[in-house]
Write a structure and sequence with these properties.
Elements lengths: L1 H6 L5 H10 L1 H7 L10 H10 L3 H18 L27 H30 L1
Helix pairs in contact: 2-3, 2-4
């Protein structure tokens, strides 16, 4: 239910509980039949206060990474970079300290090459216009 809350931008736990009880797709995703009762919003609230701590979140995140890796969808070769220049390594079983900066530099160089080519093309187009 928390995943549904975050994916669909639902801010209130009460609203999430209502949506799950009414939406057939949400029920199917969570494993509830049409006749099954869904959790009350107070159950979600209790879990946030008492059960969901940083250790629980880390366990869930690591489990998701393991499932993705087992299914063959995790590739540590690709690094996606945004403006903050954070090194990322999603492979929990293998520490790669040297390849991340090398790959990041290569991708940054490729990105700058594409940006410069686009700028040159734009200048040429505006010159002839």
């Amino acid at each position: 239910m928390v995943l549904i809350q975050h994916l669909y931008g639902i801010r209130l736990l009460r609203k999430v509980a209502d949506e799950v009880s009414m939406n057939v797709a949400y029920r199917w995703f969570l494993g509830y039949t049409l006749n099954d009762p869904t959790p009350h919003f107070s159950t979600l609230s209790y879990n946030f206060r008492n059960r969901f701590n940083s250790e629980t979140v880390d366990k869930v995140f690591n489990w998701i990474l393991e499932e993705i890796a087992t299914a063959g969808y995790l590739n540590t070769e690709a690094v996606f970079i945004d403006g903050t220049h954070i090194k990322a390594n999603a492979n929990v079983k293998k520490k790669i300290e040297e390849e991340v900066p090398i790959a990041a530099k290569r991708y940054a160089d490729e990105l700058m090459k594409e940006v410069n080519e686009e700028r040159e093309a734009h200048v040429r187009l505006s010159f002839f216009a």
